[in-house]
């Protein structure tokens, strides 16, 4: 049985043109300290594989300020100066829209590999932003924006999405696992408000993209580019992204359907043992692929072995909220401890199985801007997936973690 619950959107109104931005309120910030009239809204930037978005965030209300969102396209194959100019121009547009209303400490959510403490890009062999490899992005952007480099705080885009999703969906949840699906596969695991990047319960560095299936990187199977390439290989026909591919599947194209189902089944099989081991109270999905959830969701849920997930259609808003929250904290990234999550309850991470049924419990209620989707699979399937990980060719699962 599938269940949908939708609540108020995370942005008060759609932004068209140079919309009016309301004044900032005098209240407390997201980290509990006084925001004050001089602090105003928190500026946040979200960099995706093909776009950049900047917006003002009201941490008191937990929303993107209506009319503040600025967006521009990015060519991931462009040279470094072109990319940095586009990101900086979008950020400056935000400043122009909110004169005197935003703080000077920016939160920037960017995909990895990236040295988030120093602001230096480490892209190599990931199919995007190759020109930024070893470029001090933080220093270059700070110069273009006229701020000190230490006023720019970077974090992983999936971590930003997870932090924002937790605020929007389940602020009282103990553990949350979040995944972004689009040009690649992003992931983040939260224990409370801490990002878990180490330990036996999460993939290396908390990154699902570092998992492999049958000896190949996960993103070579379960990403938009992988699915469109597979369809073209089988049919000789090029399709314009996932939207067209899933439209073909919805129209009855058997090869399109098989392509999507195979990719989502592989993704779910790779993630299932980690969910069984980590034992999240809430599982959240975002990214461009969620627009096609009626097509991609069923095979993914069946392979994951969970009863309920939350789908956020506006994952961008969650990432912006998470980036702003990160910027509002007092510690510098280099000073923040990355902690390992201890095992708890009836979860047995050592062999990737669960002695209970982790999928039996939590149904998120009051999904802000999202909807809750129930799956048919029971919690025990997650344990079976963990036990079967070696036989399915999934590498790097808890079953194989020393």
UniProtKB/TrEMBL annotation:
Listed Pfam families: ROK
Transmembrane segments: none
Organism superkingdom: Bacteria
Chain segments carrying region Disordered: 1-42, 331-402
Low complexity: bias regions: 7-19, 348-366, 382-394
Biased segments, Gly residues type: 367-381
Position of the signal peptide: none
PANTHER family named in the record: N-ACETYLMANNOSAMINE KINASE, ROK (REPRESSOR, ORF, KINASE) FAMILY
Family: Belongs to the ROK (NagC/XylR) family.
UniProt protein name: Glucokinase
Species name: Actinocatenispora sera
């Amino acid at each position: 049985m599938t269940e949908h619950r939708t609540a108020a959107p995370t942005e008060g109104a759609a932004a068209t043109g140079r919309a009016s931005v309301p004044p900032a309120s005098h209240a407390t910030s997201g980290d509990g300290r006084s925001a004050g009239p001089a602090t105003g809204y928190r500026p946040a930037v979200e960099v995706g594989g093909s776009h950049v978005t900047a917006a003002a965030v009201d941490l008191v209300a937990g929303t993107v300020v209506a009319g503040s969102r600025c967006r521009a396209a990015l060519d991931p194959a462009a040279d470094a100066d072109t990319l940095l100019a586009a990101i900086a121009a979008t950020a400056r547009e935000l400043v122009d829209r909110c004169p005197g209303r935003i703080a000077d400490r920016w939160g920037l959510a960017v995909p990895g590999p990236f040295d988030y403490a120093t602001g230096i890009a480490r892209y190599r062999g990931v199919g995007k932003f190759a020109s930024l490899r070893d470029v001090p992005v933080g220093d270059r952007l700070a110069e273009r924006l006229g701020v000190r480099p230490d006023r720019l705080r970077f974090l992983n885009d999936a971590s930003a999405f997870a932090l924002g999703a937790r605020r929007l969906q389940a602020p009282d949840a103990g553990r949350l696992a979040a995944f972004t699906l689009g040009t690649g596969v992003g992931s983040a695991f939260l224990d409370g408000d801490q990002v878990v990047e180490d330990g036996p319960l999460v993939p290396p560095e908390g990154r699902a993209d570092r998992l492999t299936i049958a000896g190949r990187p996960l993103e070579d199977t379960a990403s938009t580019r992988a699915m469109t390439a597979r369809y073209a290989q089988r049919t000789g026909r090029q399709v314009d992204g996932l939207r067209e591919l899933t439209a073909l599947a919805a129209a009855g194209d058997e090869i399109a359907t098989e392509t999507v189902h195979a990719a989502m089944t592989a993704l779910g099989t790779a993630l299932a043992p980690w969910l069984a081991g980590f034992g999240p109270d809430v599982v959240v999905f975002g990214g461009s692929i969620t627009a096609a959830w009626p097509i991609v969701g069923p095979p993914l849920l069946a392979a994951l072995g969970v009863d309920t997930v939350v789908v956020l259609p506006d994952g961008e808003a969650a990432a912006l909220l998470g980036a702003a929250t990160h910027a509002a904290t007092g510690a510098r990234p280099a000073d923040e401890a990355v902690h390992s999550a201890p095992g708890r309850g009836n979860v047995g991470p050592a062999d990737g199985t669960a002695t209970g049924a982790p999928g039996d419990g939590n149904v998120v209620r009051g999904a802000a801007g999202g909807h809750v989707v129930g799956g048919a699979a029971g919690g025990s399937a997650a344990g079976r997936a963990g036990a079967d990980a070696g036989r399915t060719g999934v590498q790097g699962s808890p079953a194989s973690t020393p």
